[in-house]
Amino acid sequence: MKTIIEPFKIKMVEPIKMTTREQRNNIVLAAGHNPFLIRAEDVLIDLLTDSGTSSMSDRQWAELMMGDESYAGSRSYFKFEETIRDITGYEYIIPTHQGRAAERILFSITTKEGDIIPNNTHFDTTRANIEYNKALALDLVTAEGRDPETRLPFKGNIDIEAVGKLLEGTSLSRIPMGMMTVTNNASGGQPVSMANIRAMSELLHSKGIPFIFDACRFAENCYFIKTREPGYEDKSLKDIAREMFSYGDGCTMSAKKDAFANMGGFLALNNKEWADKAKTLLILTEGFSTYGGLAGRDLAAIAQGLKEILEEDYMQYRVRSTAYLGDNLERVGVPTFVPAGGHAIYIDAKRMLPHIPPKHLPGQALCVELYLEAGIRAVEIGSVMFGKTDAETGDFVPGQNELVRLALPRRVYTQSHMDYIIEALENLSKRKDEIRGMQFDYEAPILRHFTSTFSWV
Question: How many structural domains comprise the chain?
Fold first, then answer.
């Protein structure tokens, strides 16, 4: 069949508020032209993030009702631990309230000033937690992965040759670990091949360096391996995940992505020394080692969600529905990062708005215009999120790309919502020459996209 239907039925709905353009203009002005500062009730279709915004299944809701809220050693924790260990193979499972907490703990116990952590592309909180420890978050995605227009199956791959040169030219004591983000969120949500993961693992381990995954969207990456990499077409997603994780020594994960959960995450490790240190810091700042800042009901819902994300009917729908949005935006002349990833479509604001230079933040301008046009909230992934001002020269340093991410919450929106998004962007494309650039009014010192404010140039 050509039509891929949602592999679920809707049991409960939530109303959304319709607004006029005049109302939206007042709303975004009050928010300092920052989509993060707009109240959710004033958003018609919310594509700001796929993190914590999914709809849970009836089975997850059932797990919520059966959650064990014991402070120590709860039944829900052991269900959580067993499920994660079954998928990843890692020995020590440490719950956290979300992915950035796992990152903070990991880098706090492993990273010192002057260290270097290579990755295909670090996302925002990963980079911020590394830089907070005065270390360097080094992005080494392949050249093809930096090009929005190149069509290749695994544009999220890391540049193995560049990693090799780093290891040969740097004291290994300065490289506490290598990382891989699957899928590669900051570079168009592109997947990483198993061959690339295996090569990274062999290279790092040959030098005695641990290999850690940022596994927020591991299941989506596994689906791309199954459908795009020869030799995996007959394997289950769970078996592919097990092989992928076997090449690493641990992972961080925000369960708010591929576990359908509204809150939660974990750090999984094979290194007992790291795990013991992590648990000490967890107890100090998050909670006891068998709840880590989460309620028992959250742990149980995450365990169930991790089982559901590996169902192939769902993953086929997820990837095909995302591609539907991307294909139709391309049809109406909106340039995107191709091919479509699993969790989001990334509009190439640099190509769509070539009259706006990076210093005038074309991605931010497009985000604001999209909200004004149709009440759709998206997020800039460009010079607001990843650009900076050179501390010595004061010069503006742009981000690698100027993208606008349309992140699709899991099991939330239907095809008619996608068609509305396509229509809104087609309208914007027709008057794109009228869109002006933006400038910072207030520039936050860290993770500036969350709280900075802007005005039109």
Answer: 2
